[in-house]
Every structure is written in C-alpha cells, then in structure tokens.
Amino acid sequence: PFNYVHIAPVLTLCVMNSLLVDRHLADDTTRDHELQATLRQAAHNNKLKKACLDNEEHVRQLHSGEYTDAVQYQLQRSHKLAEELLASLETGLKWNLTTTYDISKLMRQCGLELSVQELYVAEASPNYFDLVPLKKEFSALKKLALKAADTRPLLDQSKLAEAVAKSFDRIEEIEHLVKNSQLDASKMAALPNAVIPKIKEALLFVKVDDALRENDDAISALNEELARTKEAQARALADGEMQIAEEASYHIIEIMEKLMELIGTKFAIINNKEEEEQHFHDVFDMLRESNKRTLAMKQEFRRLKQRCETDLHHVHKSIAMSDTKDVRTLEEYAIWKEESDAAIKANLAEQEQLWRDMRRNKYTTLLDDIIAALREAGEERYRLMTTHLDRVDLEEMRKVEYQQFLEVVAHHKKNLELTIDNCDYAVTCIGKFEQLMKSTCMAMRCWHDIVMSELYSLSVNVHKEHLAYFRELYLCVGNLLYKKEKRVEEIDRNLRQQHIQLEFAAETFDANGKKYSEAKKKLIVQHEEITDEIKMLRAKAAQASEEFVESEDALKEEGFEFVHPATEFKAIVMEQREKMVVYKAQFAKEDDVRVAAEREEIRRLMAISPNKSAQKAIGGGTPVFRGIPTPTKLNYSQ
Questions:
Q1: CA–CA separation, 563 and 542 (whole Å)
Q2: Full-model pTM
Q3: Four-CA torsion 505, 508, 512, 517, nearest 10 degrees
Q4: % helix / strand / coil in the chain, to the nearest 5?
C-alpha cells in the first residue's frame, strides 16, 4: 500500500500555499469592489456637478441672446431647475469612499516618529508558544525538587526547590500577561535556557556522603580486620611466637596500604565532586549576562514607550487643533452659505426687477441700460453659482477628510495606546524573568557554597583520617624496620663469629669447619633476604611519606597541630634503645658480680694450696693465642 507519511509534509505545504493564495485572492477581490464603488461615487458626484454647471451654462447662453418672453420663460424654468439641482447636489454629494486622508499624511502633519509597522495592532496575535515548553521544563523541575526532598531529605536543597516553585508560578503569570497582549515572548523565553541544565544538575546532585558510603564500608571492614590482627599479634608476642608476630606485622602493613588506597579514592571522589561543582561557580556570571540582556530589552521597550508617548502627545495636540479648526470652519461655512444663498436670491430678485423695468421702458432710451444690467446680473449669477458649487464640493471633501482624519487618528491613537500597554506588559514580564533568574541563581550559588563548605570540611576530615592511617602505617613499618635492622646487626655479629670459628678450624683442620661454613652460608642468605625486606620497607615508608605531603600541607594551612610520625618514631626508637641499654647494663652488672665471685673463689683456693695451683698453671694450662685480628667488617663472599 502507498505510504502517505512520506508525502504528508508536502501535502501540508500545498494546503498552506493554497490557503495563502485564496486569502490573497479574497483581498484582491475586496480591493476591486472598493475601487469600483469609489469610481461609481465619483461618477455620481461629477454627474451632479455637471448637471448644475450645464444648467448654469445654459442660463448664461440665454443671457447672451435677445431678451424675449420666451427667453424669460426659459430663464425662469432654468432658475427653478437650478434650485432643484443645487439642493440635490448639496444633499447628494458624497466623497466618503474616496481616500483623502491616510496615515502617511497624519505622520507628515503631526511629525510622528513611529510608523505603523513599529506599533502593536489589535489584530496581531500574541506569541506565547515558546513559553509552553519552558513551563513544562519548570514543571518537571518542580516535580524533581519534590522528589529530591522526599528521597534525599539530608541534602539542603530547600531554597533551590522554593526558587524553582516560585519560578514556575512566575512563568504562569508571564504566560497570562502575554496572552492578554500582542507580545512576542520568544526572546524572553530564551533567558532561562542557560540556567535550566544547572538547576537539573543541582537537583540530581548526589551527596558526597552517598558517594563515599561504599568506600566508608570498606574502610570499616578493614579497621575491624586490623583490630583482629593487632589482637593476634599481641597474643603471639605474649606467647613468644615471634614468627607469627612478624607475619602479623606484614599483614598490618598490607591492611594499612589498602586503607591508604581507600583514602586516595576518597580524595579522588571529593576532587571529582569539587570539579562538578566548579561550573556552578559561574552562576553569578550567568546572572550578570542575563541582567545585561534584560536591561537592554527593558531599555528598548522603554524607548519605544517614550516615543509612543511623544507621538500620542502630538496626536492629541493635532486632534484638539483639528476640532477647533473644524468648528471654526463650520461656522464660517454656515455664514458663507447663508450669504451665498442670500446673494443668489438677491440676484434672482434683481433679474425679475430688471425684466419688469424692461417691459415698462421698452420704447425708451433706458432700455439699453436695462439690458446691459440684466446681462451683468446673468454673469453675476453664473459667477455666484459656480463659486457656490465649488465651495459646496470643497466643504463636502473637507468634511470627508476631517472624518477620515478622525478615523485614522483614532486607529493610530489606539495602536499607540496599545503599544504603550504592551511595553508595560513587556517590562513587567522581563522584570519577572529577572526575578526568576536572580532567585534561581542565588539559590544555586547558596547551595553551591553549602556543598563546597561541606566538601572542604569533609576534605579536612579525610586529611586527618589520612594522618591517622599514615601514622599507623609509618610506625608499623618503622617498628618492623627497626627490628629488621637489629636482626641484621645480630646476623653480622654471628657472621663475624662464624668467620672466626671457620678461621680457627682452618688453622687446626678441625672437622667442625664444615658446620661453621654451612652456618655462615645460611647467615649470608638470611642477611640478603632481610636486607631486601629492609629496602622494601624503606620504599613503602618513603612512598607513604611522599603521599602524605599534601595532607601535611593542608593540615598546616588549617592550623591543625600534630607531631609528624617520623618525629614520633624517632622518639620511640630512642626510648626503645634506652630501655635496651638499661637491660644490657643489668646483665653486665650481673656478669661482673659473678666474675668477681669466681675471682674471690679462685683467690681463696689459691691461698689454700698455692704450690699446687702454680704447678697446674705451668704444666697443664690451655695455650693463649695472641694477635688474632677482629675485623670490623667481614667479606662474607669469601
């Protein structure tokens, strides 16, 4: 089957074109009828005037010939006909279909600035169609604000939701004003286009606590695991299970590294939220730009209103002057018409008297003078009648022009007043849009400041949390590093002893040399393994210290006082070393006491049997080896 969907736009365009063509044809037909009516009226007026002039011309010709009774009879008939034709002319002469006054003449006469195209007309329809989608947008934002208030009550969006609700009400008021006017609201409706996406983003904003909830749950789980590991390590130390305690230390370091990674994730989430919030920082720039546009639009409408008021003042002045002139002209015309009618009647009376005089003095010398006076009276009548006809025609045209002036000026005055009202409506609508932009931008900026303050406080708390975890990690790594370094020192001493023992065995080819050599190799392997562990631990400590620099600077800027974990660890090491020195001193004191007791016992025995002791010392004592070197650093690769 044929698909009409594809040709629907073409059909629609064809229908619209046909409607436009029909409308133009109807307008052309109307103009043709008006033109024909005007021509018929002009022909009728000319016919009336021609009849009057033809009759007067006939009267004039009669006066140019001989005066007889037949001529007198014809003159009487022509005078009577002239009266009828003049009455018919005065009542039947109409020029109302002829355009003698239009808006261009009014503009020239009054010195008007604004043309008809610059004014609002009552026939124009308001353009409020762009307000409909804008109203739908704010209706959706209003619903979104209510939903956000229900689902996320902890997020402070009350001012923003209130501003959105008031904005929706203002758009409804603007739509009502525009519908009752002839305004085009397309430019005004475009003012909030830049702020609508930001309002939607603000209402859909996910609070950073919600974004960090999963991270906080993971940190809580690791903290529980860390507590259990510390308890296990404490039990192992109490039970003397040093290997288990060491493994627990490594596990603690692993947990702390995971915690540090989660802290880094926290910082990343907060930074992302701050970046998302940065584009809300320019809402004041948007507001300033919007204020510039609204100010320009207001000034444009105010200038138009001022020009309309100036033109309206000129129109009122012209109406007053025209009314005064019309009254004066009517009075003058009435006086003139009365005088003209009286002059025509006097002329007829004079002619009648001259005809009577001519009959009485038919055979006297005065006849020639009477005929000359009669001819002069005929010419005077012709002049009076033509002047009367022209003045009547001019007066009728003046009345039509004055009436058309009143119609044109009333229509133009109505358009001026309508334009002034539309300018007031436009300024009111633009003011409401200004309030809309100001309330929404201020609410968004206030909300943005609250969110940024919360992000800053949260960032400071995360820096403090970073300090706590960094301290735990640094002290744990430092403690393990301290023990490993002590272990290396102990291995170095054992290596030195094994090396000496191996040298002694090599001196006497002692069979225990193999045992010393194997022990030395094991100690070298242990030394290398522990050295690698020390490097690894130092790298972890250095990395953690480098990552803590940002938090350290931030806490110092915040004025938060704390002891750096490195300084704290040095103090702990010194305290541990002092404790070990005390323990060693106690052991050394006990050895001195025991040696002194043994020496006292030897002196007592030597005092009892001096000869026997001397003989034993000479004949059967162990040899004393002198000059055996004790190297400060051994080459373990030998």
A1: 18
A2: 0.65
A3: 30
A4: 85, 0, 15
Q: Which residues contact 421 (CB under 8 A, 6 or more apart)?
A: 181
Provide the mean pLDDT of the chain.
Answer: 80
Of the candidates 187, 138, 147, 140, the one whose C-alpha atom is nearest the C-alpha of residue 167 is 138
Task: Look at residues 563, 557, 540, 565 and name the one whose alpha carbon lies nearest to residue 260.
Answer: 540
Percent of the chain predicted with pLDDT > 70: 84
Which segment of 121-135, 334-348, 494-508 scores lowest on mean pLDDT? 494-508
Residue type, 451: V
The conformational region for residue 240 under phi > 0 = left, psi -120 to 50 = alpha, else beta, is left
What would the mean pLDDT of 545-561 be, rounded to a whole number? 85
Q: Please report the pLDDT score of residue 310 as a whole number.
A: 93
pLDDT at residue number 28: 63
Instruction: Tell me 118's DSSP state.
Output: G
The tokens describing 40, both together, are: 């018929």
Alpha helices in 559-620 (DSSP H): 565-608, 610-619
Q: Which residues pair with 127 in a beta bridge?
A: 184
| CA pair distance 317, 315, nearest whole angstrom | 5
Sequence-separated (6 or more) residues with CB below 8 Å from residue 495: 520, 523, 524, 527, 634, 636
- Tokens at residue 244, please? 């288990």
Alpha-carbon span 166 to 172, nearest angstrom? 10
Element (H or E) spanning 167, and its range? helix 158-179
3-state secondary structure of 157: coil
Distance between CA 32 and CA 418 in Å, rounded? 31
- How many whole angstroms separate alpha carbon 211 and alpha carbon 206? 7
Does 84 have pLDDT greater than 70?
yes
Cα 124 to Cα 96, 131, 307: the distances in Å are 28, 18, 21
Using one digit for the tens of pLDDT, what is the confidence trace for 576-587? 777 777 776 776
Under a CB-based contact definition with an 8 Å cutoff, are residues 112 and 307 in contact?
no
CA–CA dist 429, 427 (Å, integer): 5
Distance separating alpha carbons of residues 390 and 407, to the nearest angstrom: 25
Q: Are 124 and 181 in contact (CB under 8 A)?
A: no
From residue 637, give the alpha-carbon distance in Å to each of 290, 291, 488, 517, 633. Answer: 81, 83, 16, 12, 12
Supply the pLDDT for residue 415: 92
Element holding 146 (H helix, E strand): helix 131-151
Residue appearing with tokens 């600077």:
553
Rounded to an integer, what distance in angstroms lies between the CA atom of residue 165 and that of residue 167? 5
d(CA 452, CA 300): 40
CB 212, CB 461: distance < 8 Å:
no
User: For the residues 349-362, what does the mean pLDDT come to?
Assistant: 86
- Per residue in 611-637, pLDDT (tens digit) is 443 333 333 333 332 232 333 333 434
